[in-house]
Amino acid sequence: MTAGRFAPSPSGDLHLGNLRTALLAWLFARTSGRTFVLRVDDLDRVRPGAEERQLDDLRALGLTWDGPVVHQSERVALYDAAIDRLRDRGLVYKCFCTRREILEAASAPHAPQGAYPGTCRDLTAAERAERIAAGRPPALRLRSDAHSFTVHDLLHGEFTGVVDDLVLRRNDGTPAYNLAVVVDDADQGIDQVVRGDDLLSSAPRQAFLASILGLSAPTYAHVPLALGPDGRRLAKRDGAVTLADQRSLGRTPAEVVTLLARSLGLASEGESVSAEDLRARFDPTRLPRDPWVVGAEVTAGRAHP
Ligand code: GLU
Predict the structure, then answer these.
(1) Which of 5, 43, 203, 223 has the fewest C-beta atoms under 10 angstroms from its C-beta?
(2) Residues marked as catalytic
(3) What is the CATH class of 75-187?
């Protein structure tokens, strides 16, 4: 079985940009013979009630998924097992660095941008003991032998990005995002990852980690984000950005689907479409490559979508 997915973090309500990404992930999966799974990335940033509202919104737009909703918080044993496998191969080390120390070291000349400089990679046993005695809880990092990795993205082509000694488990004990996503995607049979292009720079790290774990990397499609009129990422400050907000402007979920479809060039003016209708029209090669600038006619008042 091959699958695509949508994997929101339940940190708040989905806004129009998130809903558009979900619609695209659904279309990519449904038009390529894949199943579509819903995973809640709830290892951190959980806001009570957000998951229920997110799932309700997806249902209201007609984005159906297959099988039960999967929660990362219930899968920690899987992440631990992956870390154990890496540890057995000598590929894990303890890192005691604070965020500040990393930022300082990473801004040194010659450090690859955004990469962990390897400060704790070769600590002696005595140095490690000293840091433990000082009460600093360690994170776990991957001992990586690569500095960059290339992924193939359906919209961005070959994309090469930084790979470093990425965090596997944070110093509060939480499995790191990159590890959890890689383990889950492989375990769930997900071979197509469609998500916002703010995560494009994470893809090389994730694909590299997959390769180290002996897993194949998925096909990626990092899709353009939605921006507010000021060119910043769409956010609450921009007005009616959630489905609930849109409803209070008098727009129905069906009208919101139509609005999203219009933004993707999949519906023409005056036409009303459902998610289901879009399956026959969807052509991944003709997707807009630029961000969707969401204007005030969408977020500030009742207007024809
Ligand atoms: N849960 C992540 C987010 O909402 C997305 C994870 C992913 O798509 O890889 O930002």
Answers:
(1) 43
(2) 236
(3) alpha beta
Q: Rounded to an integer, what distance in angstroms lies between the CA atom of residue 252 and that of residue 246?
A: 7
The one-letter amino acid at 161: G
CATH class of the domain whose range is 3-73+225-299: alpha beta
> Residue-wise pLDDT tens for the chain (305 aa)?
799 999 999 999 999 999 999 999 999 999 999 999 999 999 998 999 999 999 999 999 999 999 999 999 999 999 999 999 999 999 999 999 988 888 887 777 666 667 898 999 999 999 999 999 999 899 999 999 999 999 999 999 999 999 999 999 999 999 999 999 999 999 999 999 999 999 999 999 999 999 999 999 999 999 999 999 999 999 999 999 999 999 999 999 999 999 999 999 999 989 999 999 999 999 999 999 999 999 999 998 644 44
Q: Where in the chain is the domain with CATH 3.90.800.10?
A: 75-187
Residues lining ligand 1, Cβ inside 6 A: 7-9, 41, 181, 195, 199
Q: How far apart, in whole angstroms, are the C-alpha atoms of residue 214 and residue 210?
A: 6
Q: Which part of the chain is CATH 3.40.50.620?
A: 3-73+225-299
Q: How far is the CA of 84 from the centre of ligand 1 (A)?
A: 24
The atom of ligand 1 lying closest to the CA of 185 is: 9
